[in-house]
Amino acid sequence: MYFKCSHPTGGSFVRPNKANFGVDFLTALKKRYALEDGSDDDGISCSLIVGSKQVQTVGFESITKKQSHLRALQNISLWKCAVSCAGEQGRIAETCPNIRVVNLSKNLLSSWNEVILIAEQLNNLESLDLSENKLQFPSDSPTPSGTFSNLKILVLNKIGITWAEVLRFAASWPVLEELYLKSNSISISERPVNVLQKLTLLDLSSNPAIDESQLYLIAYLPRLAHLFISEIGLSSIHFPDAGIGCKTSMFPSLQYLVVNDNQISEWSFINELDKLQSLQSLSCTRNPLCEVDKAEDIIIAKIAQLKTLNRCQIFPEERRGAELDYRRTFGIEWKRAGGHPDPDKNRPNAEFISAHPRYQLLCCKYGAPEDEELKTEQPFMLKNQLLTLKIKCSNQHEQKVLEKQLPDSMTVQKVKGLLSRLLKVPVSELLLSYESPKMPGKEIELGNDLQSLQFYSVENGDCLLVRW
Amino acid sequence: MRECLSIHIGQAGVQIGDACWELYCLEHGIQPDGFILDSQHDHLENTKMEHRSASLDTFFHETRAGKHVPRALFMDLEPTVIDGIRVGKYHSLFHPEQLVNGKEDAANNYARGRYSVGSEAIELVLERIRKLAEQCSGLQGFLIYRSFGGGTGSGFTSLLMEQLSVEYCRKTKLEFSVYPSPRISTAVVEPYNAILTTHSTIEHSDCTFMVDNEAVYDICHHKLGVKRPSYATINRLLAQLLSSITASLRFEGPLNVDLIEFQTNLVPYPRIHFPITTLAPIISAEKAYQEHLSVTDITAACFEYSNQLVKCDPRLGKYMACCLLYRGDVVPKDVNTAIAAMKSRTSVQFVDWCPTGFKVGINHQPPTVMPGGDLARVQRTVCMLSNSTAIVEAWARLDHKFDLMYAKKAFLHWYITEGMEQGEFIEAREDLAALEKDYEEVGLSF
């Protein structure tokens, strides 16, 4: 049996006698890299016709000669070549022992045992790509010692492997540095103990079954520097072993984290990332959080040691700008939460500190934000521009004190016009002045008709004095 | 035998050179101190090692102590950029005499680079080049890296090229130039510098590969997802391109492309020597191993406008020559299939008078990427060098900008005060107009 369909009636159209059961490794290799003996290509390979143009091919014969020296091959690709088995034992080792990099993706390999049979003959194997083969991992596979002894890169995307199987076979990959496990519906079930310890890169993207708690299980791989966890539906992360402002012991060597295409929408996620000891580069795109205005600047301000964000280098001026902006944007909230420029009075509440753990540090670096910086602009509404003024007529005491709301841009002439209609006095006879409760006893004349109330610094609550 | 000297001029040239030699060292297994780490290659047969050193020899000089020194000269009229190399990671790779700098820079002024400040530095530079040439048993030619828009890159290079033609008349000179982008400018007087330098170097250069920053920014943005690429990212991309172009010179390969062969195959007339460069595939490191790109896929990508490193549309012109340099795991069978797939494209039009349009080369050395860089490791890459009449669009744009400024005699006094004459401007502009006419003529049918 090659594989079982995931649906009971799937595959019902396949007719057994039409199915291609594949070829062995060497047949595929020779088909691609060497000409058969006595081939008929010799004469034709020197020139081809492309449209109406002759194409001169230079060096093709010598290439095929070289490649028919399969021994010299080091970097090969047998993508989609229908490789299903290793073939006769020992033949691979005889024919092409120097192979270092093999791409066996999209073939018909059905069992890890076949892979072992191929790999044990390739002592120099450093990089192996087995993506898109539906591999089974029998529980009794013995791996001869020495196989995979040089294997540094292993690509197992889309093969339906489970985490338990990865760990089981990881013992036979002692020097593995890069492991790609995309799209395998993996959920991490246990901690790797004594295996995968040399791993520097782990790609677990597109495995939606992974959640935050499972990440703790891989948090102690000592050399893990690159972690790709895009498209896993991640929304939060916590490092409970470290308090605010402290560094976590999890992911000690992690330098480059990729969390694109997730469900991150809380800033607490970014706050937690600041706790990582070695984080230098973060890729966080296509998350709900990134829709926020100036999200990138906020991320830069929240993670102190970040040097690259979304593949763009963060220059010192950019960092300075982002941090200053952050300090200003959240200044009012800080004040409301109990923050104060005077260190003795500065006691922001716990909620603020957990939402903005770096805020205090930024205040120490740049100084506490001043009130002037924090004044938000009043929205430009007409009602904010109106001055409420009392109007007293000094001559006639029987007149009541009127209260009127006037815009500060209103000219004295227009004010006089308004008052003349109200008081039934001709405009030319009016003399205006005002007094302010801020300056008791002092009366300021509004002499120039063409100037506005604002020119004379008339403010809210002042009193206009009218004489005629 | 067949050694190549690389000369890096001006800030652009020096920084591209920095990225380039870093990549070459990675490819040859050379450590920052110049010694090769042998362990990984021990098990290969001895003959293989010999071949390797023979090809390594074209770009690196091996001292008696076993240290590999690049056959390169870095030159700038001001010290900052060269000092960056002196304190950088690879500072012990270069001999101090290979890093030359002046004290006062050319201030984006062709006239300064060529006449006033440049003329003081030229003797020293020529002497250093002589020394490097003496170390070669059979110097093939020079690779010159520079930008058109800067002062040193434009002015000093034209002076240097003239002198090199006099001293080394039979040696090939290939240029790798950063062309001023259509919409992004780093200097207002770029058009002046570019046109003046093109006029002076056109007869001394055998082939000029052009790249422009805007095209590279777009590639970084769309293919690598980097919204604001730094010069480091861009230079690494250019280093990959250069590595592909020079791979056959540095590694044993079936296609023996030496510098003269480039000329012979890409340049139909002496003045028509500006091929367009394209590189494929360009994949972000975050997407490694995601997609499989066959030879057909990457060949098709070469004919896409978006993969080009110069902004000009080849669909509006005709191809005169096309050189496809494959690298890595590529078999002739796949190349045949790929080219057959391209033949059905009506957008690939050749001129009538050029019978053999394509030249294909394969080098098995797999492409290397800088660790921690933006590019993903791939099994095969292709670099296409195509000589197309569409490049006249780039010249026309530049000429137009030149005309607008020259009509008002804007910024001219900076050049005049350094000893240039207005006549030179007129001469240069006329030369470029003639170049445009030449391109038009070669594109005509019989």
Automatic annotation (TrEMBL), chain A:
Kindly state which keywords UniProt assigns to this record, in alphabetical order.
Cytoplasm, Cytoskeleton, Leucine-rich repeat, Repeat
Q: Which residues form the signal peptide?
A: none
Q: Name one GO cellular component term.
A: cytoskeleton
The Gene Ontology biological process annotation of the record reads:
cytoskeleton organization
Predominant location category: cytoplasm
- Spell out the subcellular localization from the entry: Cytoplasm, Cytoskeleton
Stored PROSITE patterns: UBIQUITIN_2
Would the keyword Repeat turn up in this protein's UniProt record? yes
Limits of the Ubiquitin-like domain: 387-466
| Known role | Tubulin-folding protein; involved in the second step of the tubulin folding pathway and in the regulation of tubulin heterodimer dissociation. Required for correct organization of microtubule cytoskeleton and mitotic splindle, and maintenance of the neuronal microtubule network.
Partners and quaternary state?
Supercomplex made of cofactors A to E. Cofactors A and D function by capturing and stabilizing tubulin in a quasi-native conformation. Cofactor E binds to the cofactor D-tubulin complex; interaction with cofactor C then causes the release of tubulin polypeptides that are committed to the native state. Cofactors B and E can form a heterodimer which binds to alpha-tubulin and enhances their ability to dissociate tubulin heterodimers. Interacts with TBCD.
What protein name is recorded for this chain? Tubulin-specific chaperone E isoform X2
> What species was this sequence derived from?
Mesocricetus auratus
Automatic annotation (TrEMBL), chain B:
Cofactor dependency: Mg(2+)
What region holds the Tubulin/FtsZ 2-layer sandwich domain? 255-400
Which PROSITE patterns did the record assign?
A: TUBULIN (PS00227)
Per its record, the protein catalyses: GTP + H2O = GDP + phosphate + H(+)
> What's this chain's function?
Tubulin is the major constituent of microtubules, a cylinder consisting of laterally associated linear protofilaments composed of alpha- and beta-tubulin heterodimers. Microtubules grow by the addition of GTP-tubulin dimers to the microtubule end, where a stabilizing cap forms. Below the cap, tubulin dimers are in GDP-bound state, owing to GTPase activity of alpha-tubulin.
Oligomeric state and interaction partners are given as: Dimer of alpha and beta chains. A typical microtubule is a hollow water-filled tube with an outer diameter of 25 nm and an inner diameter of 15 nM. Alpha-beta heterodimers associate head-to-tail to form protofilaments running lengthwise along the microtubule wall with the beta-tubulin subunit facing the microtubule plus end conferring a structural polarity. Microtubules usually have 13 protofilaments but different protofilament numbers can be found in some organisms and specialized cells.
Protein name, please?
Answer: Tubulin alpha chain
- As recorded in Swiss-Prot or TrEMBL, the protein's gene is named Tubal3
